[in-house]
Amino acid sequence: MRALLLSTLLAATLVAGGAHATPNFPGAIQRQLSATAPPACRVCHVDGITGLGTVNTPFGKNMRERGLEAYDEPRLVTALAAMERDRIDSSKGRGTTDIEALRRGGDPNSTSAGSALGEPDYGCGATFARRATGSWTALAALAVATLSALRRGRGARGSAARRSPSPRPPSGTSARRAP
Questions:
Q1: What does the alpha-carbon distance between residue 167 and residue 115 come to, in Å, rounded to a whole number?
Q2: Cβ neighbours of residue 54 closer than 8 Å, sequence gap 6 or more
Q3: For residue 155, with 0-12 CB atoms within 10 Å meaning exposed, 13-18 middle and 19 or more buried, which class applies?
Q4: What pairs with residue 55 in β-bridges?
Q5: Rounded to an integer, what distance in angstroms lies between the CA atom of residue 98 and that of residue 120?
Q6: What angle do CA 74, 78, 80 make, to 5 degrees?
Q7: Which of 8, 39, 125, 130 might form a disulfide with 120, Cβ 3.0–4.6 angstroms?
Q8: Is residue 37 scored above 80 in pLDDT?
C-alpha cells in the first residue's frame, strides 16, 4: 500500500513539474522589446507544447544558441539583444528580423510578414500551459483511484475486525474437537 502511495506522489511530482513553461518570459519579452503583445508559446515551443527541453522552434533554437536558459530572465534579455545585434531572421525569407516581427506582434518563425500572434490565452502568457489541463485531469484521476484503493483495503481489514469472534465453548467444557 505504501508503494502505491509513493508511486502516486512521484507521478504527481513529475506531472506537475513538466507542465509549465517559464511563466515570466512572455511578459519580459514584451517589456524588453516594447512589443504590442506578449508572444504566444508557439514562438519558442513547437505547437505551443511547453515544458523543460521543448524550446525547439527555429526562433527558440536561435535564442538557445545565444544563451537562453529556463527561468533566467537576465540571460533572456542577453539572448534578445544578441538576436537583434545579429539581425537573425529565423524564417529565412520573411525580410524582417525576428525582433522586428516580435515588436509588431508577429511570429518570427513564419515566412509571412503579416503573421500575427494575437493575445495568448493559454501557455506562456497565462498561468498554465495548454497541455496542463490534461495532465492535471490525469493526476486527479490517479489520486481518486489511489484513494479508492486505500479505502477498499481499509474496508476489508476493518470489516474482518468488526466480525464477532467465533463462539467459545462454555467454561468447564473442553475446547477440543473430536476426530
A1: 84
A2: 21, 45, 46
A3: exposed
A4: 45
A5: 18
A6: 115
A7: 125
A8: yes
**Set of cell numbers at residue 150:** 486505500
Cell (9 digits) for 67: 544563451
| Overall pTM surpassing 0.70 (yes/no) | no
Contact 26, 126 (CB under 8 A): no
Amino acid at position 142, single letter? L
What are 87-103's pLDDT values in tens digits? 999 988 778 999 999 99
Look at the block and give the residue holding cell 515544458: 51
- Measured torsion, CA atoms of residues 68, 74, 80, 84, in degrees rounded to the nearest 10: -130
pLDDT in tens, 126-151: 444 444 444 556 656 667 777 777 77
CB environment 67-80: b (16+ within 10 A), e (fewer):
ebebeeeeebbebb
